[in-house]
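Colleagues,

For the teaching module next term, I've prepared a clean inverse folding example: a structure given as tokens, and then the sequence designed for it. I'd like students to try predicting residues themselves before seeing the answer, so please don't circulate the second half yet.
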């Protein structure tokens, strides 16, 4: 049975998973301590999510990762639905991601709509080029949905 557990200590224990969604550790360090972390357990840890309160009713997904061997099995969507229900006192759920053919369609299928972009975010903030789905990530796509 699927269980969600809030992680309050030793968050870096899940660094291998976190790095699947944000591949530079010093970028993870910017939000891991101020965010709330959750794991999804379905016999073992299948996924992890870090969310932050951005004020004005906005909850932001800073990191959402599903272990490679469990991807495309509904765990990412299950995590988003859990987060939406658990944090139902917020009005918006926001995520920023690379303009990738893998991640943007996933979030759109979860009810998110593009609301903006941060130009050159990945090229300006990461110490190496990031490729995903054959695309060099440059801009961050901001997507939102109602909680």
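(Answer key — instructors only)
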């Amino acid at each position: 049975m699927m269980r969600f557990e809030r992680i309050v200590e030793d968050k870096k224990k899940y660094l291998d998973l976190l790095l699947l969604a944000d591949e530079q550790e010093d970028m993870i360090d910017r939000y891991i301590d101020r965010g709330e972390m959750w794991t999804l357990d379905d016999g073992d840890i299948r996924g992890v999510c870090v969310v932050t309160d951005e004020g004005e009713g906005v909850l932001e997904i800073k990191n959402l990762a599903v272990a490679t061997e469990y991807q495309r099995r509904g765990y990412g969507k299950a995590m988003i639905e859990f987060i939406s229900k658990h944090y139902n006192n917020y009005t918006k759920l926001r995520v920023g991601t690379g303009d990738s053919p893998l991640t943007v369609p996933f979030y759109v299928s979860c009810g998110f709509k593009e609301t903006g972009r941060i130009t050159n975010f990945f090229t300006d903030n990461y110490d190496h080029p990031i490729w995903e789905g054959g695309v060099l990530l440059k801009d961050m796509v901001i997507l939102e949905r109602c909680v």
